[in-house]
Design brief:
The protein is mostly beta strands and 562 residues long. It contains six helices and 31 strands. 7% of the residues lie in helices and 56% in strands. It is globular and about 55 Å long. The protein starts with a helix and ends with a strand.
């Protein structure tokens, strides 16, 4: 059902954003914005199980227009999905064209007021994060009112109330719940100002968030108001950065946890130490029953998320590890740890050579919680769900990644990087493929960059993944040729050659996934055309992932800024 009040408000706010156009020359205001679109024509390709929508041509498009004048700012975003690209977005499908985001904001002295849409985050986001990751298809923008106030130097207060964006049908459609929050933060170095002579700083903060949703369940008595709070501290020195945050959420029965009446809690700790040529970091966290959505019956895990639980796993950028076996945080429960070391051998040393040598070591692991199931199926204690000791890992391992990278400049024009990864992956839990065995994969990646001159360069990647589980072995070759400042050409082939008789006996076929790209950049405009096969896999950003279907066809991407 269309929310006509929201639609009218959207038009009013967008009018506020656009009306100053005629006055620009008189009042000195500024207008800036951007546009982007991705359009794809789909071919039939039964060999890879390519998705072919009823409309063979699909397109996503966005245009932002922002007006600023002194303390005032207003803007809007026009969106179009006619129809949306296959597999987009991560949650409830988008359709149609219209206004998806609009706001007005002004600052008067130490008070900032925002009406309409806004993004916000408390701490690391464990109780609240409203954000957009456009190409992942995640957008839980708030629609309401937000206030930010700085009563004295070093003290920051903010509060909000509103509803979250759920999907898009010719306009942004909001979820049924109402979300309210307040956060306070104190920076001692700013608060003490001239009395603070140390180079160190301590930032402490805390926040509270609650959601309201009417209880219409005929069988269960569900809490209509669910609250969560978090406390955090961040200590920094020129060499150290230590951060910790604890969050607690009261019982929140929902369809992701089986409607159990168990409180949730989370703790994360991160520490980094860095000096020139050396850095080390370590982190650990425990998440227990921390799914937090403004609709307890949200259709997918991507819709109406109030919070964000940061992953403790390296976010790989190479094709094979990034799209085949990336890790996504398990909000219902996990205990994870990560450690990373970076070191650079200086120029002129035995291992550094003429240009120096860099090494990076990383290890991350995640386990299920150690739980004890409570009650029988018809016992009221079963509604508590389970019991677990805080920060207690169970026997089931979800994920493990050990990797090492060597990066070396070998001449004025050549630079090479060699990476090895060893990955353990519970594909049953992480990708929802019940009954499939855990994947144990080894990967080797060689990356090279050759600069012909100041304008022309060639970058290449050779990747290999070997495993006896899932889809078997993969090989990837990529080459990118850049002619600065305008042109670039790229070609990539992914080859699933399996390499295991048992997998081939199940009917799995060896397949190539070639794709070519041509791009042109001029000023604030960028054009790119791709043609070829897209492998079914996973696309992740910051530990949040969505499935990407197999496809074959022509893709055009255009971006423009002004």
């Amino acid at each position: 059902m269309v929310n006509h009040r929201a639609y009218t408000t959207g038009r009013i706010l967008l009018a506020l954003a656009l009306s100053p156009l005629a006055l620009r020359a008189q009042d000195g205001g500024q207008i800036h914005g951007n546009f982007s679109t991705d359009a794809q024509y789909y071919n039939v390709d039964s060999a890879i199980g390519a998705v072919v929508p009823p409309q063979r041509l699909a397109a996503n498009a966005w245009a932002n227009l922002i007006y600023t004048n002194g303390p005032f700012e207003a803007g809007g975003r026009f969106e179009s999905y006619t129809p949306a690209l296959a597999g987009y977005p991560a949650g409830v499908p988008y359709s149609g064209s219209g206004i998806g985001y609009r706001y007005a904001r002004y600052k008067q002295s130490d008070l900032e007021v925002t009406v309409g849409n806004f993004f916000e985050q408390f701490g690391q986001g464990m109780i609240f994060r409203s954000y957009e990751e456009r190409y992942l298809g995640v957008d839980n923008a708030m629609d309401g009112i937000r206030l930010k106030y700085q009563p004295i130097r070093g003290v920051y207060l903010k509060g909000f109330i509103g509803q979250q964006r759920l999907n898009f049908v010719n306009e942004a459609v909001k979820g049924p719940g109402v979300v309210r929050g307040f956060d306070a933060e104190v920076s001692l170095s700013e608060l003490l100002d001239s009395n603070w002579t140390s180079a160190n700083n301590l930032i402490i903060g805390g926040g509270f968030v609650s959601k309201y949703q009417e209880d219409r369940d005929p069988l269960l008595e569900l809490p209509e108001n669910v609250g969560a709070y978090a406390l955090r501290a961040n200590f920094t020195t020129p060499k150290w950065n230590i951060y910790t945050e604890y969050a607690y959420k009261i019982n929140d029965p929902n369809n992701k946890n089986g409607f159990i009446y168990k409180d949730g809690q989370a703790l994360l700790v991160n520490a980094t130490y860095s000096v020139k040529g050396f850095g080390i970091s370590a982190g650990a966290h425990s998440f227990d029953n921390m799914f937090f959505q403004s609709d307890r019956s949200a259709a997918t895990p991507f819709d109406l998320n109030i919070n964000f639980l940061p992953p403790l796993a390296k976010q790989h950028t190479y094709n094979l590890p990034a799209t085949l076996y990336p890790y996504a945080t398990q909000p219902n429960g996990e205990v994870a740890a990560q450690g990373e070391l970076f070191y650079k051998w200086k120029k002129g040393t035995a291992l550094g050579g003429k240009y120096g040598t860099k090494i990076a070591l990383n290890y991350s692991v995640a386990y299920a919680l150690d739980t004890v199931r409570l009650g029988l199926a018809d016992d009221t204690t079963a509604r508590i769900g389970y019991r677990t000791a805080f920060f207690s890992p169970g026997k089931r391992r979800y994920f493990q990644d050990m990797n090492v990278e060597l990066r070396k400049k070998i001449s004025d024009s050549w630079e090479l990087a060699l990476t090895y990864l060893n990955v353990w992956y519970d594909i049953d839990i992480i990708q929802g493929k019940p009954g499939q065995p855990a994947v144990h994969a080894d990967m080797v990646i060689l990356e090279g960059l050759h600069n012909f001159n100041d304008k022309n360069s060639l970058r290449f990647e050779l990747q290999h993944l070997s495993t006896k589980q899932d889809q078997g072995n993969w090989a990837t070759a990529l080459a990118e040729l850049t002619f600065s400042p305008h042109w670039f050409v790229a070609a990539m082939d992914q080859y699933n050659y399996i390499g295991d008789a048992k997998l081939e006996a199940k009917g799995q076929k060896q397949l190539h996934y070639p794709i070519g790209s041509v791009g042109y950049i001029r000023g604030g405009n960028r054009f790119q055309v791709n043609y070829g096969r897209q492998r079914a896999g996973i696309f992740c950003v910051g530990g949040v992932c969505r499935q990407v279907p197999a496809a074959n066809g022509l893709t055009l991407s255009v971006t423009s800024t002004f």
